[in-house]
Amino acid sequence: MTFLFPLHPRFVHFPIALSLTGVALIILGLLLKRERWIEYGRFSLVLGWLGVLVASLTGLIDGARAPDSPAVQTVLNQHITVGVSLLVVFGFALYLPLRNRGLWNQASEPAPRQTSAFQQSHAIRPPRSLRTRRASRNQRALFMALLVIGAGLILLEGWLGGRLVYSLGVGVAAH
Questions:
Q1: Using an 8 Å Cβ cutoff, are 22 and 44 in contact?
Q2: Is 107 exposed, middle or buried (0-12, 13-18, 19+ CB in 10 A)?
Q3: What is the pTM of this model?
Q4: Interatomic CA distance for residues 11 and 146, integer angstroms
Q5: What is the pLDDT of residue 52?
Q6: Closest alpha carbon to 82 in 168, 166, 12, 129
């Protein structure tokens, strides 16, 4: 069974690629008003977040097998902290549009229709919680900031993982 270990390196590449692609597509889709790009970005980001979850779990399994040297443990703890932060930041970025769908589909939102007071009072509307509200500037800024912070955390996470492998030799078989 030792041929399966280390597990973590087998699971990190797709979450990195999917998450960064998702962030790029969502930001470009919002800026260029391309609904389809936002849709593809959202799908990539969800798959990337699920991949980060799997990579984190396999990382915890492999982390138990890491050497006990202080240098390795320091970088490993930083790597774990950034991984958990990544789950929280992207999780929150995926949650925000569920609370306000205007964050996703504001790119091509039509102008509101003019209606009379009678039409407004007698209209059948979905509950307030299910309506698409136009995202405020602050909500949009928070959403974009979370995406950019998440992309930065992915780069930091990859650098820390590379440091563990290439500088400290974690998970590398001695020849």
A1: yes
A2: middle
A3: 0.80
A4: 23
A5: 96
A6: 12
CA 167, 168, 172: angle at the middle one, nearest 5? 100
22 domain residue, yes or no:
yes
Instruction: Give residue 37's identity as a one-letter amino acid code.
Output: W
User: 128 lies in a domain?
Assistant: no
Q: Is 131 helix (H, G, I), strand (E, B) or coil?
A: coil
- Read off φ and ψ for residue 15, nearest 5 degrees: -60, -35
Model confidence over 32-74: pLDDT tens digits? Answer: 999 999 999 999 999 999 999 999 999 999 888 889 999 999 9
Is residue 18 included in any domain, yes or no? Answer: yes
When divided into structural domains, the chain yields a total of 1
Q: Is residue 124 part of a domain?
A: no
Domain that holds residue 82: 2-106+135-167
Strands (E), 30-159: none
Residue that the structure tokens 């091509």 belong to: 108
Helix (H, G, I), strand (E, B) or coil at 112: coil
Burial of 70 (0-12, 13-18, 19+ CB in 10 A): exposed
